[in-house]
Structures are given as structure tokens and as C-alpha cells.
Amino acid sequence: MPLQGSHLQSPKLHIRSRKAPAPDGFVVHTSNLDSLSNTPFLIHWSHGKIQKILLAKDEPLSIANLKKGIASLFQFKILDDQINETDSSGHCTVSYTSTGANSFTKSKSSCLSSDLPYISNPELILSTNVESSRTGSYEMDEQNKYLKSVQFEERHTMLVAAKEDVGNKVEAHQSLVLKEQKNCEVMNGDSVEEIVDKLRNRDGITFTQESLLTEREVLLAEDAKTFQNIINEYRDNLKTKLLGTLSSAKVIARLISVGRIASKEDIVKTLGAKKNQKILHQLYDILGYVQTQASHDAVMKKLNLEDQKQQDLSERYLWALSMASQPNPHIISTLLTLYQKSSNIPPKVKETLVLTVAAMARRLSKLPDYKENFKVYHNVEEAMLHGLDVSKGDTKLVYLRALKNLKSKNSIPRLLKIVRKGTEKEQVFAWKALRSFEPSSWNNKIINAATTTFFQLDKKYDSSSRTIALDIILLANPSDKMLGNLIYFLISSCKSFEVQQYLVQSLKMISDKDEEFKRRVLNIIRSDIRLNNYDTLAQKGWSTALKRDFLQSSSSNGSLLTVQEIKGGIVKRGIVNIMMEKDGLSQEIFSLGIFSGGLDNIISSDGDPEESEESATAGIELTVLGTQIRPFVFFTGQGELMGHVWSGSASEDTTAYQALAMLHDHQEYLRLGAGFIAELDLKGAISFDLSGKIEISLWNRNAVSLVEKSAGIIILGLIRVDTSFVKSQVEFSVSLEPKLNLQTDIEFSSNVNLCMKLSQPDFMFRHNVFKIERIPGSKHRLRKVKYKKYTVPGKTYSLNKKNNEMCNEQRR
Fold first, then answer.
1. Residue 370 gets which letter from DSSP?
2. pLDDT score of 750
3. Long-range contacts, 117-120 (Cβ 8 Å, 24+)
4. How far apart are CA 629 and CA 622, in angstroms?
5. Where does the record place the Vitellogenin domain (predicted)?
6. Which of 256, 473, 535, 803 sits in a 20 to 30 Å window from 217, CA-based?
7. pLDDT bucket at 679, cuts 50 / 70 / 90
């Protein structure tokens, strides 16, 4: 059967209706399908393979796709086999399996459509899982000469990787049944081309040859808006006072989607509009995630990185660029050139620029097309390593932070060299960079250097270097011998009580989550009476390391990791990490780091004998979505500290960091075998606000500090099938508005009394599902909604026994 003619007779759209007779539940509804041009089409079929499909020239795309879906059903093999085929589902691996003498199944898997747009977050926990099933059953006549029936079903489910009970699904069913047999006209010819010519001359139809691949219909949206129009619509949601709330988070995805198709002129007008001047910071957040050539050119036209007055705006844009999961390689190259050639960029912006280029390059290396952009990554890597080699003083610290963002394995030898020969401050930064690598990158040289640093085998090290090195040793699955050496350190002559306390806390934290690790630790302790006693295991200091669950689901876990390294009653290095964990992997969503130095000399005369003196300093370091940003320094030097104390400038609630950011960014198009294309889109957004204050009274000799983290988080998922005659979609939204407070009360009138309170207030979790169906040209509009919500109870986290005792003592 070399050539077969087919014709769709009066195709109709059916919709579900309560008025429909059982059991189908469908009735005919008028639509544009009734009036679409519908001509015969030809299929060149040979031994079960569709060689060609010929469609009438200028056939409406909706009808053409539908015909390709039908034609694909006739591509099959009777014998068991596994081959590669191309049809209306894409380029697939196809398996044929016999189920009887005259029946078999056909299963498609790994269907690829490289010609259609695809965006996905490479970070596993922030990614999107799409699970597909395509299976059909075929029944032949008794002589296996012709088809009696085909039933084909496919299901595609889109799930949030971190929470697999949240998602949506699209199903497609095809049913082809032989009703009757008739004699048909047979047209003879020496070739397919000759037959096509005869049909064209007879029926006046000009045919064009096409593949079975369905084509995407690009339909003009009824509510298409410019970037300027969409900003006008949502301007109130972008007000600064609403950052950290759901009101601003819920508009981020929509704004970014429109921004990605906006022209340069449209964006320039938006940035220049007077009504938008109070929300410029938020607009630059959005455009950093849009990250098209048009958006970047528009930003560079309005934003001058060398202008002192535009420092805050410049940093907001650069921060957003550094956190986007889909970095634009051309923008990376442009920013690197700008950094290398411009000498007039303010120091803060220049540091942010370096950190941004490094972070963007790292994210670029995780994308599927990384090999095509390897030169861009290599240029950044080369620039960062050269900068580290030639820089001195605080500038070297900038490049160490940049290498933490870049996470290049080629930087490891340089970092280890600084661990051996750098200043105490440089060593701490080098260890932070090494700690940021995946544990699989920690080779023997890193483990040996960590061992040397922690046990101070060659010289004295800063306590922060030692505790970070300890983290690496413990997370690298230490041997029983190494674990024993660590535990015996508790009875050594070392007088760094806070380092010993940090070790005890770390062992407890890991043991709480890992039963095997706990067993190993207890075996070592119980084997020696010197270890298994109160004097060794009792809390000697205030340092804390703990991990607590705060949002659990069947597929993943949200946890809170806090580390407080104390010196002289003051937090020297404090970290509060919000982590997402799944299948043994963890993703750092947000990290707040507090650092200080030289303050113990002000409030206490009890210093650590192994620590060197340093000038008073304090500030915070933030790592957002794996990208470290420039630290915020509150003061340097005792004079600057006293200025804050006497003026009371730090006692007011002050915003340290605000941003709009994207957590999830996924878009793909799936070819459905029935001849339609489904769009899958999932966006996760966060609106974030970090603020704090500190009150210090030299008269009463006490201090109170409060750090507040507020966030509005929303995930929007959409599966949509759009044609010229029907539009159908199902979408979901998940939203929450969590807060986290860290309060520290210090009294130093006589003995130092330190009370830290880490608390999480109640917040609401909402999960909504919407089903929407429309028929263009008619009044038919179906909308179904399901709502679900529950309260996540608040809690105050117990840090350690001694901290609890200090807090209780303050209450008396």
C-alpha cells in the first residue's frame, strides 16, 4: 500500500456537559473547527513506516497537526522490536511487544523535541520533574492484513521536585476503530510523484510534503500587554513596603514572562516613566531575571555603573543577574569586559560586579549548552585566578569570595596555598570557598589540609578556619581513626573551649540525623572511660551547631541549620541557613552569616588565649540561592562602633537586604501524539526582606539585637493546550509567608550572660488548583477551582542546654 488517501469528515469539538448522555459525558459544541478548511491528505505508507505525509498547501495548522496525529497511529511493526521513530510525539525510542497472535502494544519513551523552547533550573531541588507515559494497544485481523482497532493513551505529569505532591497533569486519548469496509478508487502510477500530480490535476489540490512532527501554533494572546502596561497594572504590588510579602511575590513570574518578550524600547520607556521611579529597585530585580539581550541593552542605557548616585540600583541589578538560573553568556562577556576596562566604578559596585560575573559563569557551566559557551566560562575563570594572584590586602578577599561563587576545581590549588601561607583573614575566606564545593570535590589534599588546620599541626589558626575545616572533615565521611582523633581532641590540652564545644555540637547534630554515625561515635566514647564522663562531654562554651526540620513532605524536607561560633560572649561567626533536602542532596536557599571581631575586649576581659587581637568590626554576609553577595559591614574600628552607640543609629529597625527573586524557572513544550502541543510552565518566586536592629547600653552594660527574615513565596504551575478552536489549561499555586527571628540578649554588667532566641511564627500554607477551558469565538468558559490551606505552627528552637539556662536566668 504505497500511497493512501484520507479525509476527515466533519470534525467536531466535544465538551463535557451534565446534559450529555452517560457514559461518555460529552456533547458537540460549535467552534472554529467547523469552519476551518479541511481537504484530503495523503500518506505514503510502506511496511508499517510512514515515509511521507502530504497536506494541502496552506492547510490550517490546527487541522494539519490533527491529521499528523491520526497518521502517526498507522506507523507500527507487528514483530517485537525496539527502534527509533519520528512521529507526532517527536523523536522517540519505541518498543513493540506482542500480546497475542493478532495484537501487540506500542510504547514510546525518551521523546525529544529539540526544535521547541526548553528552560529548566539545573539545581536538582529547584528543578521540575516531568514524568511521561505513552502506550498504545493494536488489534489486527486474523491474517494480520489490516487494523481493526487502535487505543492510544498518554499521560504527562509535571511535579515540583522538592514537593512531589504538588503538580498537574495532561492526558490524551486516541481511539481508532474499524467500522466498515468499502471498495475505494485505486489510482495507478509509476511513482508517488506521478500519483500526486494526477490528483492535483483532477481535484485542483496542491500538496506539500511534511514530516510527521507537529508544529507549534503561535497564537496571539487576547490579553497581550507591553512591559510598560503590565508594570502599570502591578505597580502597587511592587511597593517597597510590600517586599517580604506574598503581595509582591505573586506578580514576579508574570512580569518576568512579559519582560522576556519585551523590546528594548518598551523597557527603556518603563524605566524612564516618572510613576516608576519609586519602584526602580524592584524593576531592576525583575530585569536581572529577564536577562535577554534587549533587556540588558535597555538597562545599560539607563544605568551607569560608574555613577556614585546609582550604586544601589547597580547592585540590585547585578545581584539579580547573579542568581538567575539561565545566565546569558553574552551578558557575562559584556560585564567581564566592563570590569577589566573601567577604572571608575565605585568600590562596592566593582566588588559586586566581580562576584556577579563569577556566579553567572558557574550557573552557565550547569546548562545543557555549556560546551558551546566554554570559552566564556574559561575567560571568567582565568580573570578570577589572575586577580587573586596579583591582588593584595582586602582586594584579595574580594577574589576569594568570587572563587566561592565560581566553584572552579582549577582554583583548589590556589586556595590551599592561601590556607598554608595567607594571613589569618585570608585563610578563613579560603576555607569558606573550599567549604562551598560539593563534597565530591574534596580530594585528599583538602582533607589533609583540613586536618592540619583543625589540629593546628604546623601553626596556630583562627578559630573560624578551624571550625570550617572541621565541617569539611565531618561531612567527608571520616574514617573510624579520624573520628577517634576528633573525639580524643576533647580531652587534649587545647584551651580553645569554644572550638571544643563546636565539635561536641557538630557530633550531636550529625548523630541526630544519621544513626550509623551515631553508633560509631558512641562506640568510641564508650570504649574509653576518659571520654565517657561528664567532664569531657559537658558544655564548656556557648558555641552551637544544630539542625531542625521546619517544613516536611513525603518527597523532601525543609531544614534550618544554625551555627554560632562564640568568642568572649559575642557571636564571632554565626550562620542561619535555610536548606531544602531531597534524596540525600541538599540545596542552600538562603544563608545569613553574622561576623564580628574585637568586641569581646569591649564587654569582657576573658579572651581566648589562642586568639590574636583584632580591631572591632561587625557585619553580615548573605548567600542567596548559592550566590554570595558583597558583605554589609556595620562598622570597622572601635571609634565607628562608639559613634553608633552614642547616636543610637543602630537601634532603629533597618533594612539590610531586599529582593525579588526566582526560585523555579521551567518551561517546555511536549508534543502530544494526538496532534497537539502542550506547554508546561512552572515558576517559583520569592519576595525577601531582611532587617535588624541592635541596642547597646554602656550605662546598663547590656545589648539587645534582633534580625528578622520575612519572605513571600509562591510557586505557579501551568499546563496549557492552545489551538485555534479550543484553549484548555490546568494550573496550581502554592504559597506561604514564613518569618524567622533571631534575637540575642547580652548582659555584661558582671559575668557575661548570653541568651539567643531563634523563633519561627505561625504561617499559612495554601494550595489551589484551577481548571480553565475556553472556546474562541463563543461564550463558553469553564472554570473549576479547589482550595486547600493549613497552618504551619510556629516554634522556638532550642539551641543548647547552656543557652536555655542563660535565657531562664534573664527571666528571673
1. G
2. 61
3. 117/667, 117/668, 117/669, 118/667, 118/668, 118/669, 119/326, 119/665, 119/666, 119/667, 119/668, 120/665, 120/666, 120/668
4. 6
5. 1-575
6. 256
7. very high
